[in-house]
Design goal:
- This protein has about 220 residues and is α/β, with parallel strands linked by helices.
- The protein folds into two domains: about 110 residues, Rossmann fold (3-Layer(aba) Sandwich), CATH 3.40.50.12500; about 100 residues, Rossmann fold.
- The protein is about 45% helix and about 15% strand.
- It contains nine helices and eight strands.
- The protein has a four-stranded parallel β-sheet with strand order 2-1-3-4, with helices on both faces. Strands 6-5-7-8 form a four-stranded parallel β-sheet, with helices on both faces.
- Helix 6 links the parallel strand 5 and strand 6.
- It is globular, with a radius of gyration of 16 Å.
- The two termini are about 25 Å apart.
Length: about 220
Amino acid sequence: MDRILVINPNSSAAVTRGIDEACAPLRIAGGPAIECVTLKEGPPGIETQEHVDSVVQPLLHLVRESESRYAAFVIACYSDPGLHSLREATKKPVLGISESGILTALTLGQKFGVIAILQGSIPRHLRYVGALGVADRLAAELPIGLGVAELADEKRTFGRMLEVGKALRERGADVIVMGCAGMARYRKPLRDAVGVPVVEPTQAAVSMAIGRVCLGWEAA
């Protein structure tokens, strides 16, 4: 059976559990197996450009070491660390959750909004949106003001996400992208409360990976 490896580049086992739960609906009979792992060399949360840069070499080592055992790889961090380096290192499909989440959002609405964890994350994300050439489709990106480790506080996190989700809708977003893999558990309640589609980016990336594997697509 083909297998897809979903890599959490931070060292939080709790985040990896949330990622694994988000992947559960995509584990279908006859489809690729989906395995989720934690990058032990990663920081507790990827919250700065330095954090992003620090995990590229460990990610490269992991992908190269495990390439023969997996049909595709998903980098489950909204900064897509090392995405292009990893694509150079293997002909297997490599999906980043930010790129996949944004591209999925573009199929669900005209303007997308992004819920970031911290204000400091936003300039990094905006550079990426610009590089993807979709800045004109971005309504806004707003932070909840909580770090990755703080996302485990469900009541506080969902309260902030609801406030930001409503603010994004007021700014013209008709679809919302969750800007951190640690937010996965809040997708359905946020969708129901805000009333617009909410994209959980790891689910978006894994869905694309499943399609690539089933169709036998590899990199050129």
